[in-house]
C-alpha cells in the first residue's frame, strides 16, 4: 500500500491533462498512487491516461461501467479506490509544484489526532489558462478557518488543495443523495466532525478561465457594484439544502456548539425573522463574508 492515494476525476481534459500528469509524476515524494476515473470523455483524455498508466505503475485507470456521473459523483467513485492512510484530490488542469505532496503530508502528520477526521488544505496561485499570468494567491494570508467564516462562503475549500486522512474518507462515504460539489462535502466533514488546518504556502498553479479569474479578484468597489446591481447572493440554494441534509444525517456526530451555530445560520438566511434579529445573530456568532462581519451585514441589508 502507498502512503498517499490521489483521486483524479477527468472529463474532456486533453488540453491540459499532460501538464498536470507530468507535475504529479515529478513530485519529490514518490510513494503514491494516482487513481483516475474518466466521466465519458469524447476527446483523447482516456488515451492519454492509458498511455501514462503503461509507463508508470503508480497510475491506475478506473475502467468501470457506471457511465457519466458528473463531477461530484466522479470524484466520489475515484475516492472509493483510495485505501492509503492519506488522500488527495487532483483536478485535470492544474499544475502541482514539486513539493506539494511532501509539504502537505508533513503538515497533516503534525496536526493529526488519533481516530479523528483531519483535513488540511493549502494555498494556490490563481493563474490564467495559459499559465503566463498570475493573479495572486487563492486565499488571503489571514484566512479564518472556522465554521463561522465558512458558512456564508457558499463553497467548500478547494478540493485540489486538500489532503485528508483515511478516517475522514470513511466518514465521508457515501456522499449524500443531493451532493453537487465534492469539496463542499469533504469540507463539512472536516469542520463539523473533525479538524481543519490551512497551509498558507501556495503548492500549485490553479488554472482559471479568464471570466472566473476576473470575478474572483474583484476589488471592494467591484463587489459593492455587484451588490447594488443585484448580482450577489446571501446563500446558494443547493448548498443550503445540502447543508440541511448533512446536519440532519450527521446530527449525532456534531457537537452542541456547532449545532447552535448552524441553527443561527439557518435563521439568518431563511429570512424568517426581523432584520435586527438577524444582525444580532451575525454579531453574536461573529459570522463573516470575506473576513468581514460588516460586509455580511451590508449584504443582508441590501438583499433582505
Quick take:
The chain has 304 residues and is of the alpha/beta class. It contains 13 helices and 9 strands.
3D architecture notes:
- By secondary structure, the protein is α/β, with parallel strands linked by helices.
- It folds into 2 domains: 4-212, Alpha-Beta Complex (Spore Coat Polysaccharide Biosynthesis Protein SpsA, Chain A), CATH 3.90.550.10; 218-303, no CATH class.
- 44% of the residues lie in helices and 18% in strands.
- It contains 13 helices and 9 strands.
- The chain has helices at residues 14-25, 45-55, 70-79, 100-111, 147-150, 166-172, 182-193, 210-216, 220-228, 237-249, 256-269, 275-285, 293-303, and strands spanning 4-10, 32-38, 59-62, 86-90, 95-96, 118-127, 134-137, 162-165, 195-207.
- Strands 1, 2, 3, 4, 5, 6, 7, 8 and 9 form a 9-stranded mixed beta sheet that branches.
- Helix 1 (14-25) links the parallel strand 1 and strand 2.
- Helix 6 crosses helix 7 (182-193) and helix 12 runs antiparallel to helix 13 (293-303).
- The longest helix is centred in the last third of the chain and has 14 residues, at 256-269.
- It is globular, with a radius of gyration of 20 Å.
- It starts with a strand and ends with a helix.
- Mean pLDDT is 92; it is low at 211-215.
Amino acid at each position: 500500500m502507498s502512503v498517499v492515494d490521489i483521486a483524479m476525476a477527468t472529463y474532456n481534459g486533453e488540453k491540459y491533462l499532460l501538464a498536470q500528469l507530468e507535475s504529479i509524476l515529478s513530485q519529490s515524494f514518490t510513494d503514491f498512487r494516482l487513481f483516475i476515473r474518466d466521466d465519458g470523455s469524447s476527446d483523447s483524455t482516456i488515451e492519454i491516461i492509458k498511455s501514462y498508466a503503461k509507463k508508470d505503475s503508480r497510475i491506475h485507470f478506473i475502467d468501470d461501467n457506471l457511465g457519466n456521473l458528473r463531477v461530484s459523483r466522479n470524484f466520489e467513485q475515484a475516492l472509493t479506490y483510495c485505501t492509503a492512510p492519506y488522500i488527495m484530490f487532483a483536478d485535470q488542469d492544474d499544475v502541482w509544484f514539486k513539493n506539494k505532496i511532501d509539504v502537505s503530508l508533513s503538515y497533516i502528520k503534525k496536526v493529526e489526532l488519533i481516530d479523528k477526521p483531519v483535513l488540511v488544505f493549502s494555498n494556490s496561485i490563481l493563474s490564467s489558462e495559459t499559465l503566463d499570468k498570475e493573479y495572486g494567491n487563492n486565499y488571503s494570508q489571514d484566512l479564518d478557518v472556522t465554521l463561522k467564516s465558512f458558512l456564508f462562503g457558499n463553497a467548500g475549500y478547494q478540493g485540489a488543495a486538500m489532503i485528508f486522512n483515511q478516517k475522514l474518507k470513511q466518514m465521508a462515504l457515501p456522499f449524500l443523495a443531493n451532493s453537487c460539489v465534492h469539496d463542499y462535502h469533504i469540507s463539512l466533514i472536516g469542520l463539523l466532525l473533525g479538524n481543519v488546518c490551512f497551509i498558507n504556502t501556495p503548492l500549485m498553479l490553479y488554472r482559471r478561465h479568464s471570466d472566473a479569474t476576473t470575478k474572483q479578484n474583484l476589488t471592494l468597489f467591484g463587489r459593492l457594484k455587484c451588490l447594488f446591481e443585484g448580482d450577489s447572493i446571501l446563500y446558494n440554494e443547493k448548498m443550503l439544502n445540502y447543508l440541511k441534509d448533512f446536519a440532519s444525517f450527521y446530527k449525532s456526530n456534531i457537537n452542541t456548539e456547532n449545532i447552535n451555530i448552524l441553527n443561527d445560520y439557518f435563521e439568518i438566511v431563511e429570512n424568517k425573522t426581523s432584520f435586527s434579529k438577524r444582525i444580532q445573530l451575525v454579531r453574536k456568532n461573529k459570522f463573516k463574508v470575506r473576513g468581514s462581519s460588516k460586509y455580511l451585514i451590508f449584504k443582508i441589508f441590501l438583499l433582505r
